[in-house]
């Protein structure tokens, strides 16, 4: 069972913008709180134990911060490189040393499903908040040694790269500390802040390639889910600067929302305009005079009425309502009676496939399988 003091996963909403480079992150800046603590003056600390000289695991990469003062002296303030590009997934979590011997402090690192493929950093800060730093430190993950006091190397902070070392869910971490009672060390798990700059092109047809550009994007295609309207797109390539996908089949014409999920977190929606050829398959009237609203059936129409054009023997009618499969159109003022008037169309400027015919006469006659008399305006 987890100890009572285990910290929960801190997740916040992801925010991306299509036109501005706003941040996509799961929490506030990782170092804002932990570094505020480390900048405070440290109290006196005991001399380091000889056991604190153990070496860090060769399987991890350690980045060190500013120099840590000798025992009994306050540490200098730490300013990690590119702190503004980091967001916290868990922590800061402070561990306070108790007793006069080595103390074992079990805790858990918890990450959400999908976040295990992100670049992950585990940062330790020694002392802070008016509390001295520990003089001995050993950290292990699932029984495997991760790092030790030796990794501070006279500094007050260091970072261990955790890429590929943490599965989704809970992972036990044991932090052994040594020092004066009340000495502390703080840890925080972070990832790089994701930024999106734009989506191009802003108008595309079914099957065309779309590129989302940004910064610190995950390189694993499995980190993403992209929906165009209600259709899921397949990710073609992913780098730290671009994601490429094709517009999926079945997306209706017109403006469509592009919903982007990164590591399971939904980001602010983007949008593109879908060009669609559309297809005309029928009309609900056999006969109707000019000024009558008729319904054109088909598929691939834009849901924005003004993106669709319907012509009666070349004369455009007014489109008053649009769905992906139907258009309500007012028959234009053309000479009548005319039989077999050709009805054609365009969607987003592209000629629609197919056509249909109806008679423009003084009579109003519905097709029995589409609408009943009296249900349309004359």
Architecture overview:
- The chain is mainly β and 378 residues long.
- The protein folds into 3 domains: 26-192, Sandwich (Jelly Rolls), CATH 2.60.120; 196-275, Immunoglobulins (Immunoglobulin-like, Sandwich); 279-366, Sandwich (Immunoglobulin-like).
- It has 1 helix and 30 strands.
- It has one helix at residues 31-39, and strands at 23-24, 62-64, 86-96, 103-111, 120-126, 136-141, 144-148, 157-161, 169-178, 184-192, 194-200, 203-205, 209-215, 224-228, 231-233, 235-238, 242-246, 254-262, 265-266, 270-275, 279-283, 285-288, 293-299, 308-312, 315-323, 326-330, 338-347, 350-351, 356-360, 365-366.
- Strands 21, 22, 23, 24, 25, 26, 27, 28, 29 and 30 form a 10-stranded mixed sheet that branches.
- The chain is rod-shaped and about 105 Å long.
- 40% of the residues are buried.
- Mean pLDDT is 78; it is low at 1-60, 64-82 and 369-378.
Average pLDDT, rounded to a whole number, is 78
Helices and strands: which structural class?
mainly beta
Count structural domains.
3
Fraction of residues in helices? under 10%
Number of helical segments with 4 or more residues? 1
Question: In angstroms, what is the radius of gyration?
Answer: 32 Å
Q: How much β-strand is present in the residues?
A: over 45%
CATH class of the largest domain: Mainly Beta
């Amino acid at each position: 069972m987890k100890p009572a003091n285990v910290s929960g996963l801190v997740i916040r909403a992801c925010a991306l913008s299509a036109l501005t480079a706003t941040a996509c992150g799961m929490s506030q800046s990782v170092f804002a709180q932990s570094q505020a603590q480390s900048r405070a003056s440290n109290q006196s600390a005991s001399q380091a134990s000889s056991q604190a000289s153990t070496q860090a695991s060769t399987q991890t990469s350690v980045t060190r911060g500013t120099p840590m003062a000798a025992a009994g002296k306050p540490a200098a303030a730490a300013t990690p490189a590119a702190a503004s590009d980091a967001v916290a997934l868990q922590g800061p979590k402070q561990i306070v040393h108790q007793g006069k011997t080595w103390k074992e402090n079990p805790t858990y690192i918890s990450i959400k499903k999908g976040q295990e493929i992100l670049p992950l950093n585990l940062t330790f800060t020694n002392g802070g908040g008016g509390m001295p730093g520990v003089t001995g430190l050993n950290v292990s993950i699932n029984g495997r040694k991760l790092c030790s006091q030796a990794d501070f190397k006279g500094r007050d902070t260091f970072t261990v790269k955790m890429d590929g070392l943490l599965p989704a869910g809970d992972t036990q971490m044991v932090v052994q500390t040594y020092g004066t009672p009340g000495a502390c060390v703080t840890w925080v798990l972070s990832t790089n802040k994701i930024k999106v700059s734009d989506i191009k092109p802003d108008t595309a047809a079914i099957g065309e390639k779309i590129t989302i550009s940004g910064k610190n994007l995950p390189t694993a295609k499995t980190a993403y889910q992209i929906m165009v309207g209600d259709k899921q797109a397949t990710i073609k390539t992913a780098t730290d600067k671009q994601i490429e996908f094709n517009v999926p089949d079945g997306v209706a014409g017109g403006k469509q929302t592009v919903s982007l999920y990164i590591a399971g977190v939904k980001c602010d929606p983007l949008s593109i305009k879908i060009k669609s050829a559309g297809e005309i398959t029928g009309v609900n009237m056999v006969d109707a005079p000019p000024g009558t609203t008729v319904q054109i059936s088909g598929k691939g129409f834009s849901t924005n009425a003004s993106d669709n054009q319907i012509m009666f023997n070349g004369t455009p009618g007014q489109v008053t309502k649009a769905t992906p499969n139907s258009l309500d159109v007012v028959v234009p003022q053309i000479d009548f009676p005319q039989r077999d008037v050709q009805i054609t169309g365009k969607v987003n400027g592209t000629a629609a496939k197919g056509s249909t015919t109806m008679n423009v006469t003084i009579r109003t006659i519905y097709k029995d399988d589409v609408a009943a008399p009296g249900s349309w305006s004359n």
